[in-house]
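Retro notes (design track)

What went well: tokenization of the new backbones is finally stable.
What didn't: we kept losing track of which sequence belonged to which structure.
Fix going forward: every design gets posted as structure first, then sequence, in one message. First example under the new rule, 435 residues:
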């Protein structure tokens, strides 16, 4: 694990490397992903079945997730897990209901009517990753805002292990009222949702899979690349990479608690990133020792160890102000502020997917049930991307209604601008109404 101080002679170079962590090498996988997407466009579910055989290791003969499976999984949950799932779903929905935008109209000086009409997309595609672990929380985080937005059709794709979908994920589908889901992962899932496909009896899908309007959800580099390539044919939420956490902490924090939070993202993936920014050298060394002590007790120790050794850093700064400055440059997915004056620092924090304030606010609550979405920008893209929200499942149309008085007052200006651009037909369409 890197241990840096801002006084180090090579700090600028080392920090620049950390700040550029988001430059995923998509070039290496674009040819393979393009081929997958092209095959699905040409051969639909037959191609998807072949991809499932090749990448997921089962025959792909039953790609459809059945409603009975979802219902049974929910009914057989332990009372503890059922309650946790319901609480999370209700809190996530309640938060996203506050994001709803309304259509509006305004009336101008000439009686003209201008406004904006907000409408949900007809059909949304949600990708839920699998593989190293199953993530029912990702299903809740992606489906709940779609439901709040008013999307009528939500389709889910997730990889299956041996043709079986994780039972907790199935239970979450039932809770969310998912009516359509497929056992498809990776770039193939994105391609299927973005292109649609005809029915395929040998795949266990007796109906056509309709194309979606938007694809959302996290995934590996193949999923991220596929989303980037289909953008324009459909909308997407963002191009997100490996998970990450940044922690601004001072000596008022508990070193073992900070170490646990540091590792909360490292256990996701070998290429997840964790950063600690602190103005206290002794505290930094204490956290470093605790990280390796806590690491020993993790079930996913091997994954977390690789992440810590290859993608983590502790940075000792001159002050909390410098910690904030560097955190803004890193623009991490999750940023914890473990100080007694956390809210005093908030106005100066510009770039982070989600901000967790105070000693009792672990990032894990953001992953599961605090309420805000956990589908967040990574790799410094928080400088221009926002968390997944209701707005990703909605679109806006401008509304314009003019009258003779408006035309009389502003028509000459409109015609003048049209003629200046050489578009005399535009000018004519205005002037002909004045006669």
């Amino acid at each position: 694990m890197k241990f840096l101080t801002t006084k180090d002679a090579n700090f600028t170079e080392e920090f620049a490397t950390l700040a550029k962590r988001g430059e995923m090498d998509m070039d290496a996988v674009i040819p393979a992903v393009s081929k997958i997407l092209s095959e699905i466009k040409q051969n639909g579910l037959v191609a998807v079945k072949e991809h499932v055989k090749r990448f997921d290791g089962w025959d792909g003969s039953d790609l459809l997730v059945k409603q009975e499976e979802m219902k049974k999984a929910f009914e057989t949950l332990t009372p503890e897990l059922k309650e946790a799932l319901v609480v999370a779903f209700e809190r996530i929905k309640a938060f996203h209901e506050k994001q709803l935008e309304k259509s509006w109209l305004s009336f101008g000086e000439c009686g003209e009517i201008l406004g904006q009409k907000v409408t949900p997309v007809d059909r949304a595609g949600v990708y839920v990753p699998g593989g190293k672990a199953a993530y029912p929380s990702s299903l809740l985080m992606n489906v709940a805002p779609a439901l709040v937005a008013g999307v009528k059709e939500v389709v889910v794709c997730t990889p299956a292990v041996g043709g079986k979908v994780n039972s907790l994920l199935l239970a979450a589908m039932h809770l969310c009222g998912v009516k359509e889901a497929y056992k498809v992962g990776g770039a193939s899932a994105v391609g299927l949702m973005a292109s649609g496909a005809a029915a395929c009896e040998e795949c266990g899908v007796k109906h056509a899979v309709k194309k979606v309007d938007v694809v959302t959800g996290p995934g590996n580099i193949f999923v991220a690349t596929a989303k980037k390539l289909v953008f324009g044919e459909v909308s997407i939420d963002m191009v997100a990479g490996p998970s990450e956490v940044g922690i601004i902490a001072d000596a008022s924090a508990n070193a073992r608690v900070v170490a646990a939070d540091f590792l909360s993202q490292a256990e996701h993936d070998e290429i997840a990133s964790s950063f600690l920014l602190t103005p206290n050298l002794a505290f930094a060394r204490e956290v470093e020792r605790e990280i390796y002590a806590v690491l020993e007790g993790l079930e996913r120790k091997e994954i977390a160890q690789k992440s810590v050794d290859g993608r983590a850093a502790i940075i000792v700064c001159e002050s909390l102000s410098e910690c904030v400055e560097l955190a803004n440059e890193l623009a991490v997915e999750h940023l914890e502020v473990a100080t007694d004056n956390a809210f005093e620092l908030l106005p100066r924090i510009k770039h982070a997917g989600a901000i967790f304030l105070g000693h009792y606010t672990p990032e894990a609550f953001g992953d599961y049930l605090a309420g805000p979405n956990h589908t967040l920008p990574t790799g410094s893209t928080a400088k221009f991307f926002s968390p997944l929200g209701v707005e990703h499942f909605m679109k806006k149309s401008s509304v314009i209604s003019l009258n003779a008085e408006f035309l009389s007052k502003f028509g000459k200006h409109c015609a003048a601008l049209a003629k200046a651009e050489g578009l005399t037909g535009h000018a004519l369409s205005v002037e002909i109404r004045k006669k």
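Added context from the reviewer: The first strand starts at residue 2 and ends at 5.
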